[in-house]
Design a protein that fits this description.
The protein is α+β, with helices and mostly antiparallel strands. 46% of the residues lie in helices and 18% in strands. The protein contains eight helices and four strands. A hairpin with a 4-residue loop joins strand 2 and strand 3. The longest helix is centred in the N-terminal third of the chain and has 14 residues. The chain starts with a helix and ends in a 6-residue tail after the last strand.
């Protein structure tokens, strides 16, 4: 992961006036491990207390609060994520991409399902469209939007064109389900 972040030329800090307690690279790696471990933010921070060698490897001076990771997730931009993904594809030495596209919706809030149902909050969703190489199972491009009501076909052409800018495409196949 460090190699991917170095090759994508991601800065260590989002802003020059940040408090420099932990780097953006450390946050990205922590979020990746949190997703891999399938833990909530709170559970991950509790787990991180016991993961001494991981903290030593990442050179964490102190364990971040779980809200720090949540805020970083909200703050990170799509352009930054696309740079990381493009760098990963170039490092993986893939020659051609066999593209498949799909979409999924996510909740925007960090509130629990029980709280959301009890308070009758308005349900807001974020739609994530992904273009991936189905042979090597590598995500190539993402498109995130706030309106889940739009159809997947709207995102098809931009994802294909941006994927072809990274590497040449070998096969593009359109399958429409009625």
């Amino acid at each position: 992961m460090y190699r991917v972040l170095r090759n994508s030329r991601i800065p260590l800090y989002l802003h020059r006036r940040s408090n420099h307690v932990s780097t953006m690279w450390q946050h990205l790696i922590l979020l990746t491990i949190r997703h891999y471990e399938v833990k909530s933010y709170r559970m991950f921070v509790e787990w991180l207390v016991e993961a001494y060698y991981l903290r030593l490897f990442l050179q964490l001076s102190r364990i971040p609060h779980f809200t720090t990771l949540q805020k970083f997730t909200d703050r990170i931009s799509n352009v930054l994520l696309e740079k990381i993904i493009s760098s990963f594809i170039v490092i993986s030495s893939t020659k051609h991409i066999f593209v498949g596209i799909d979409s999924i919706g996510f909740k925007i809030t960090h509130a629990s399902q029980y709280y959301t149902e009890r308070t009758e909050l308005r349900r807001e969703y974020t739609k994530l469209s992904i273009g991936a190489d189905v042979l090597q199972q590598i995500i190539c491009k993402i498109r995130i939007r706030r309106s889940p009501t739009r159809h997947d076909n709207i995102d098809f052409k931009p994802i294909i064109t941006r994927t072809s800018n990274i590497l040449p495409l070998s096969v593009v196949r359109i399958i429409i389900f009625w």
